Amino acid sequence: MTKTYSPRLFRYQDYEKVSSQEDVFLLWEMLRIRTIEEIIAQKYTDNQMKTPIHLMIGQEATVVGACSEMLKEDKVYCGHRTHGVYLAKGGSLEKMIFELHGKSTGCCGGRGGSMHLLDKEVGVDGVSAIVGGIVPIASGAALALKRLRINNIVTVFLGDGAMEEGAVLETLNLAALWKLPLLFICENNFYSVCTPLHERQPLDNIAAKAQAFGVRSSQVNGNNIYEIKKEVQKARKRALRGDGPSFIEMKVYRWLAHGGNLDDTDQGYRTFEEVHEWKKHCPIESLKGYFIDQGYISEDEYTQKKSFFHHQVLSVFDKVKDQPNPDLNTLYDHVYAK
Amino acid sequence: MSWDDQLVNDVAKNENQFINSQNERTLTYVEALNEALRLSLDQDERVFVLGQGVNDPSAMFGTTKNLKEKFGEHRILETPLSEDALTGLSVGAAMNGMRPVYMHNRPDFLLLTFNQIVSHASKFSFMSNGQTKVPLVMWSAIGRGWGTGAQHSQAIQGLLVGVPGLKIIMPRTPYDAKGLLLSAIEDNNPVLIFEHRWLMKRKGFVPEEYYTIPLGKAQIVRSGNDLTIIGSSLILDEALEAAHEIYETNQIDCEVIDLRTIQPFDEETVLASVKKTGKVLVVDTGWIDGGVTSHLSVKIYEKAFSFLKMPIERIALPHCPTPSSSYLESEFYPGIEDILKTIKKLAGTP
């Protein structure tokens, strides 16, 4: 008997007091990231991006909402689902696409691939492809900021699967104990590759698990960008006051397979109904509808923006063929730091 | 007080074996480490020490004694029992401008940290194309004796010697302990230090000032022409003793090389000696299968085969977990007798 996970309903109208024309950039940013991911998915079949990819189509509100509350100097760390975090924090699109193609002008000179994007200028500081591996590392970054008296926070993005790794639970304890300026954002998309949450955890209580270690925890609707912004803002202020870490569980849904560019609903580990229901609550479509209702944007404007982003991304792909491949003699560079 | 303190006192040597002077400043190995930490913490405010027990009365075998009083509990950080996450935390701190020295009682506990050491710390410089550095020191002391048993006596350098991006050092004398620790802290890579519990109360010459010993540089602690003994840590100490003895009794002249750094090891010094003598004994405190002796032997065969007069001899721990019973311990651990026998075999003496 397959269990299904349903999105929770909300009304943007409830956020009228906080929403304004200025928020339109949030929609454009989500749309931009969606467009980038869709084109990567399309082009992946050309087999020129020889790297595993983990797209975040459907989950855009979490990263855009969270990063909109951060400063450039705040740091973000994440796991294998890197693209959204990297782009929402301000990472260079060109360097990302070149990296996916293994070029020397990629953000890591082709040495990292999709699962290890980096853009230190905008605070995308570290990624690990080992589930949960980056979480304690992020806590060390937070400790450094605190000790060096730097007034910024560290945010680490993790998934529901990472909440089963021992090191992550250890980190919750450490962060609470030492009041680290660390924000844990857990994107709970209910599936670890193909295995559903209820087959891995007896209770659906991720936020409560974090709370039990002494970390102030909350749960938000991962499609509701206003709810996300509110919680992230609170967490950031809490951290900078010296009151310690926060944990925000965001319930979201990924539309495609765990990895790769395909829709794998036909594999049967989740139902068509479930996927369809979540797509009806697309964070982009619903926010677009609200902004049109409010008169902030028009349908035409949206269509134009979509086309603009489409061309912007394709023009970056056009540049790939002119990018140099890494010099083969540099294979051993940076094995050891000087 | 550590439960094996009496044993460590008993096995401690009173003289540094290559410097013999009444007037030289003498410290114990533990005091040398304490001095190194003190100097480093004083000189660089980014350095901090962490670990389970760094602030308790036993003070990590005495190495962190009185440091909290001088530098505060934030820089001498007592920790929960979370080796895996704390190693990750150390990696993150190191990536962001700090220089952590993570101290463990035993290398056995480092086995809990392999995900962070091997899949993260050792690889971040490479994966980031040099944009990230991980200046991290992981310190531990190999246990032995008093029934310590299989899980508290593992010398794990052999498990890590093949991992690109790590440096591994094994000091032997108080002088080396201080200098190598200071070098390790200065180094911008993850450095693993494997001390040996039985070396920690020995005394030797230690200069008062801040000094470093370059990583990757071996030391010829005894010059000789008949054969070459290569190794580090306690077992090289025993080899040195055997070398002195056999020169007295049989006039066999051994060249004894203390690698000090296992990875990267000093190929130049080692190969020069091998080419001179043509007879080699490699010793290690880890296991005989795989490990450091296999690693070094193959490198020597690859680069100096035509100079060898005999196959390379190796002495390391047998392929067996460490027994607890002291009777079995004495059978388990190779010692000076085994080394003497092997030297005679290489020298062609019955």
Give your account of this protein's structure.
The complex is a heterodimer of chains A (338) and B (350). The model of chain A has no long low-confidence stretch (mean pLDDT 96). In chain A, helix 1 (24-43) crosses helix 11. Chain A contains 11 helices and 8 strands. Helices cover 40% and strands 11% of the residues of chain A. In chain B, the strands form 3 sheets. Chain B has a 7-stranded mixed sheet with strand order 3-2-4-5-7-6-12, with helices on both faces. Classes of the chains: A alpha/beta (338), B alpha/beta (350). The A-B interface holds A 75, 77, 108-112, 116, 118, 120, 125-126, 128, 130, 133-145, 147-148, 166-168, 170-171, 173-174, 177, 333-338 and B 46, 48, 74, 79-80, 82, 84-98, 100, 115-116, 119-120, 124-135, 164-165, 167, 188-189.
Question: Could you provide a short overview of the structure?
Answer:
With 338 residues, chain A is α/β, with parallel strands linked by helices. Chain A has eleven helices and eight strands.
Per-chain topology:
The complex is a heterodimer of chains A (338) and B (350).
Chain A lengths: L23 H20 L16 H8 L7 E4 L4 H6 L4 H8 L23 E4 L6 H14 L6 E6 L6 H12 L4 E7 L2 E2 L2 E2 L9 H7 L3 E6 L3 H17 L4 E6 L20 H9 L2 H12 L4 H21 L19
Parallel strand pairs in A: 1-2, 1-3, 3-4, 4-8, 7-8
Antiparallel strand pairs in A: 5-6
Chain B lengths: L4 H7 L14 E3 H15 L3 E5 L15 H5 L4 E3 L4 H13 L3 E5 L3 H4 L3 H8 L2 H4 L9 E6 L14 H4 L6 E3 L4 H13 L4 E6 L6 E3 L13 E4 L4 E5 L1 H18 L3 E5 L2 E3 L3 H11 L2 E8 L3 H14 L8 E5 L8 H7 L3 H12 L3
Parallel strand pairs in B: 2-3, 2-4, 4-5, 5-7, 6-7, 10-11, 10-13, 13-14
Antiparallel strand pairs in B: 1-8, 6-12, 9-11
